[in-house]
Specification:
The complex is a heterodimer. By secondary structure, chain A is of the alpha+beta class. Helix content of chain A is 54%, strand content 17%. Chain B is globular and about 50 Å long. Chain B is an alpha/beta fold. In chain B, a hairpin with a 2-residue loop joins β4 and β5. Chain B has one domain: P-loop containing nucleotide triphosphate hydrolases (Rossmann fold), CATH 3.40.50.300.
Chain lengths: 408, 228
């Protein structure tokens, strides 16, 4: 008998040990439930972080664009309407008005981590007889690479952007038959033309992006696109990625710009994440419920089996509160021990699945994210579930009439 | 008579009052038990002996009447206080020993002390071991109750009832399930406790020979109490 344990703990543990088979079965049940929760939560966290990393490191959290160019209706001066139809004008590549002032204001906002102006537009990359349409992204490397992690996607060369440098996608390099150190002639529709040296090759994991994407320095792009001193977008990185849409709406309402968040531009992806989170929460809730009912069922049976013991304990001066605690402790202990085994089971399954499940290209399906907090919270939650589940049987035990209980 | 430990004043007990199944079990019981008195309660089965013992043991409440322990009226006391009184003043021995099978003999005897003090102490264990020795079971103190004979289990139950050194020991046919040799031995143990500690004992029994060895015999017949 453990000397440091209060009576309720001693009796609760003895009762659990006395009904060993019953206790083992329910602990196995809890362990399976907790294992499923741990495994699913960790795997989904890994998958989501992988997806989010891919989306958010290859595009800005928020992109600021100049407002749409609209045609103004002709002013009516007489009784006749000149033209009832207003045709939408073609959208010329224009700079964001007063972009430096806007940039300063954005930099002052605490929710925003990085602000990077870019000059982007279409161009033609020519090498020998081959030519390809490209998206020319003129960026300030020191800020832009903190918004879009281009260096993380570099597969050859480096993410260096001096005035004559260009970083291109691997598919474009293949199409042009170009490699590191080769020269490319880049021409734009405004008549700008420069010969640039390939200093890096990037692979964004998307063939389309790899065929079109190029990066040059901001000044080079401004010169080529004919927008000296101007920028076509301001790309932002924010601290709270799920607050990006609210922040974008706030920016749009206070400035004469369009602000698109990653949530808006990846609406389908975001909906999929939310659906996944909801599914995960539902699975957790139902597994938790089945665990709770399992514990409650075992303890209800235990109260019936132990009714005579309860009566004797009451006859010996055990209070209703002590009887209540005795059964609550059993529920909590079952939940806690079950959760420990469950965490181990979930962890083992996670390791195994991570080692065996692979994507089509052979890379890992999800990063192995072992968050101690997940195990801690799951154990706490399972113990609390055990306590809660034990409440009804414990109250029933505490309310037992000792005379009836002793009689059996 | 010396100062009474226990006084019952016109105790009645009715089950399911006002219903078709109403049963009046006790019909005005008056009884006084002195300190150190050993009283046998006899009567036919179903006469209300056990109900009377449950009321005296504060496990059940009377429908009417007063129960005084050391002059203190227990009627109207809240459950928590009755539980405390039961734990400190009254010891129980049942017909079927009713030891807790999850514990050893020693732990069963320690149980009332643990319930009261919250955790095991050297003093509690020493007292329990002393009691186990007193009932002649030192050698099997650490055996599970379920591995002991009926006579041994009943002795452990007596040791458990004595753990808190109660004023009153209530024994509901403690020898009813034992052979004559064990019955005599258990009775002798109770008599010894009664003599040595001055503990009042109420013993329900159907055994005339044992009843005759008690200080007084009362009979419950049809809900009424009769001396002799």
């Amino acid at each position: 008998m453990k000397r440091w344990l209060p009576f309720e703990w001693i009796a609760a543990i003895r009762f659990l040990l006395d009904g060993r088979l019953q206790s083992i079965f329910i602990i196995v049940g809890i362990a399976i439930g907790v294992g499923v929760i741990v495994f699913m939560s960790a795997m989904l966290t890994g998958l989501q972080s992988n997806f989010i990393k891919r989306v958010l490191t290859s595009s800005p959290h928020i992109q600021i664009l100049p407002p749409d160019q609209l045609a103004r209706a002709l002013r009516v001066t007489g009784p006749d309407l000149e033209d009832a139809t207003i045709q939408r004008p073609s959208q010329r590549l224009i700079s964001i008005d007063q972009w430096q002032g806007i940039k300063k204001q954005l930099e002052a906002m605490p929710e925003i981590a990085v602000v990077s102006p870019t000059a982007s537009g279409s161009a033609l990359a020519i090498r020998g007889d081959a030519s390809r349409a490209i998206t020319l992204n003129g960026v300030e490397a020191e800020t832009y690479f903190n918004v879009v992690r281009v260096p993380d996607y570099i597969v050859a060369g480096q993410a260096r952007l001096l005035s004559e440098d260009i970083v291109i996608g691997i598919e474009l390099a293949k199409d042009l038959g170009a490699n590191l150190g080769d020269k490319l002639n880049v021409t734009t529709s405004t008549g700008g033309s420069r010969t640039l040296t390939i200093v890096g090759l990037v692979d964004f994991g998307n063939k389309g992006a790899n065929q079109r994407t190029t990066f040059v320095s901001l000044r080079t792009a401004q010169s080529l696109l004919g927008m000296i001193g101007g920028v076509s977008t301001i790309d932002l990185s924010v601290h709270e990625i799920y607050q990006a849409e609210i922040l974008a709406q706030s920016i749009q309402s206070t400035h004469d710009v369009i602000a698109d968040s990653w949530i808006k531009t990846n609406a389908q992806f975001f909906t999929a994440i939310q659906a996944q989170n909801l599914t995960n929460a539902l699975i957790r809730a139902f597994v938790g419920l089945s665990v709770a009912f399992g514990i409650a069922a075992v303890l209800v049976v235990s109260v019936i089996q132990r009714s005579r013991d309860i009566g004797i304990l009451r006859a010996m001066g055990t209070s209703r509160g002590q009887i209540l605690r005795l059964f609550l402790i059993q529920g909590g202990v079952l939940g806690f021990i079950g959760s420990l085994f469950g965490c181990a089971v979930g962890f083992a399954a996670l390791i195994y699945w991570h080692a065996t499940a692979r994507q089509a290209d052979g890379s890992e399906l999800f990063p192995l994210i072992i968050d101690p907090a997940l195990f801690l919270w799951t154990a706490l939650l399972a113990s609390a579930t055990g306590l809660l589940a034990a409440t009804a049987p414990a109250v029933r035990a505490a309310k037992l009439d000792p005379v009836v209980a002793i009689r059996g | 008579m010396a100062d009474p430990v226990l006084v019952l004043e016109h105790i009645t007990k009715t089950y399911n009052p006002g219903e078709p199944s109403e049963a009046v079990v006790l019909k005005g019981i008056d009884l006084s038990i002195a300190r150190g008195e050993f009283v046998a309660i006899m009567g036919p089965s179903g006469s209300g002996k056990s109900t009377l013992l449950n009321i005296i043991g504060l496990l059940d409440r009377p429908t009417s009447g007063r129960l005084l322990i050391h002059g203190r009226d227990t009627s109207g006391l809240p459950d928590a206080e009755l539980t405390h009184l039961r734990g400190h003043r009254i010891g129980f021995v049942f017909q079927y020993h009713y030891l807790i099978s999850a514990f050893t003999a020693l732990e069963n005897v320690m149980m009332p002390l643990l319930v009261d003090h919250g955790f095991p102490t050297d003093a509690a264990e020493a007292r329990a071991r002393d009691l186990i020795t007193r009932v002649g079971l030192a050698a099997v103190a650490d055996h599970r109750a379920s591995n002991m004979s009926g006579g041994q289990q009943q002795r452990v139950a007596i040791a458990r009832a004595l753990a808190m050194n109660p004023d009153i020991l209530l024994a509901d046919e403690p020898t009813g399930n034992l052979d004559s040799e064990n019955a005599a031995s258990v009775f002798a143990l109770m008599r010894e406790v009664n003599k040595s500690s001055g503990m009042s004992i109420l013993l329900i029994t159907h055994n005339d020979a044992l009843a005759r060895q008690c200080d007084r015999i009362v009979r419950v017949i049809d809900g009424h109490l009769r001396d002799g």
